[in-house]
Specification:
The structure is a single chain. It contains 1 helix and 30 strands. The strands form 8 sheets. Strands 3-2-1-30 form a 4-stranded antiparallel sheet, with no helix packed on it. A 4-stranded antiparallel sheet has the order 4-5-6-7, with no helix packed on it. Strand 27 and strand 28 form a beta hairpin. The chain is globular.
Length: 398
């Protein structure tokens, strides 16, 4: 598959809209007006084969993406041509047309993926590989039969959908993120961390090599003194460069605050302690907290707690506690609207996605989605790349 003139022209239009909105874009770019664009919420359902496209103006499901069994997450092509889905069952990145929601192709990976992320600046997809592999599909990794199989990140060229490199990292990867300025790829690693083991590694997309690493320590929980990383989010400086990392670790109901320049943990954000009878330990998979979002306007960071069935907010840059909203059992990943007014939360325990008014701190919509909704993202498309309402919604039966 090669890039088209139409795709390149579309990329310029979308990029111009986004760059005009914020010089320091977060995971969700800031837009004060939705004129000329359409916003959609992509809800992946980790225990199913149907993914949901939500219109945040209607708070309704307006399309179904059929396929991609056991998805880890959904993200979008830089030119808004395709949705990319990390397919844990087939060990592929599945490519769906954004308008028809039909499967276009499957890109084979070295092993089972977890989260995938798109770097628009370098036009690459980075797929975190959750298991070690003796068969790296991209060049760059030599397999030594006398030691453990390598842990990998697969790198896919956006324009050809070919795996152009595999990068060896310290441990298998749980999640992959792109910094706000798209200058770095940040990995959260899984496994059992020792005193000298990194659990965050940073890749330079210019060279596709590991630039630096960091371990999380200084706090003991459940006998762990060194912690592997789950979700992360990033706060940008005014010039768009990365200021701080917010990270959630296995088995800790708190958020680590890491200074980007010094590469040191500088704070921990703790929600109010709940009585034991209000906590939910069922199905949280050692991820006491499992969802982070820095708002597009950089006014707050929000964290979801599976253990507490709530989301919690802290103001930026001063990290003052804002409050919490009860959302239901196993509160999972979340994503905000580009105007920073609403948060959409995947609630795995009830198979629903909730819309939260962040000013009122209350639930304003409950949307039935699929089997164990988990990773969720916000995408911005030009009107001619949006699926018509009701696309592929003949039936939601698996």
């Amino acid at each position: 598959m090669t890039g088209s003139l139409f795709g390149r022209a579309l990329s310029v239009v979308v990029a111009s809209l986004l760059l005009a909105s914020s010089a320091a874009a977060q995971a969700v770019p800031q837009l004060d007006s939705y004129d000329g664009v359409v916003v959609r919420i992509l809800q992946s359902n980790n225990a199913g084969t149907i993914q949901h496209v939500i219109d945040p103006e209607l708070n309704e499901v307006v399309g179904l993406i059929r396929g991609c069994p056991n998805p880890h997450n959904l993200t979008m092509h830089p030119d808004a041509l395709y949705y990319y889905c990390a397919n844990e069952q087939d060990h592929t990145v599945d490519v769906f047309d954004t308008k028809t929601l039909e499967l276009v192709e499957q890109v084979k990976l070295s092993q089972r993926p977890n989260k995938v992320a798109v770097n628009k600046k370098h036009r690459k997809i980075y797929a975190g590989i959750a298991r070690r592999s003796t068969n790296p599909l991209g060049p760059g990794v030599e397999v030594d039969p006398n030691r453990a199989a390598p842990a990998l990140v697969d790198v896919i060229d956006i324009d050809t959908h070919e795996t152009v490199k595999s990068i060896e990292v310290h441990y298998p990867v749980h999640n992959v993120f792109v910094t706000p300025d798209e200058r770095w790829i940040v990995l959260g690693l899984r496994g059992t961390a020792g005193p000298d083991d990194p659990t965050i590694q940073v890749i330079d997309p210019e060279t596709d090599t590991v630039a630096w690493s960091l371990g999380l320590s200084g706090y003991e929980q459940y006998g762990r003194t060194h912690h592997t990383v789950r979700p992360m989010a990033f706060e940008a400086n005014d010039d768009g460069s990365t200021k701080r990392i917010f990270a959630q670790a296995t088995g800790i109901n708190a958020v680590w605050v890491i200074d980007w320049e010094s590469r040191e943990v500088v704070d921990m954000l703790w929600p109010p302690e709940l009585p034991l009878w209000e906590k939910n330990a069922d199905g949280i998979q050692t991820g006491d907290m499992h969802g982070l979002e820095v708002l597009a306007d950089r006014s707050a960071v929000w964290a979801s707690s599976r253990l507490d069935s709530r989301i919690y907010g802290w103001s930026l840059p001063d990290l003052e506690y804002i409050g919490g909203v009860e959302v239901g059992p196993s509160a999972n990943w979340m994503t905000s609207t580009p105007d920073s007014k609403y948060m959409y939360v995947a609630v795995s325990g009830t198979d629903q996605t909730l819309a939260i008014d962040l000013e009122k701190l209350e639930v304003v919509a409950t949307i039935t989605t699929g089997a164990r909704p988990a990773r969720i993202s916000t995408v911005i498309l030009p009107p001619d790349r949006v699926n018509p309402k009701g696309t592929n919604m003949r039936s939601e039966e698996e």
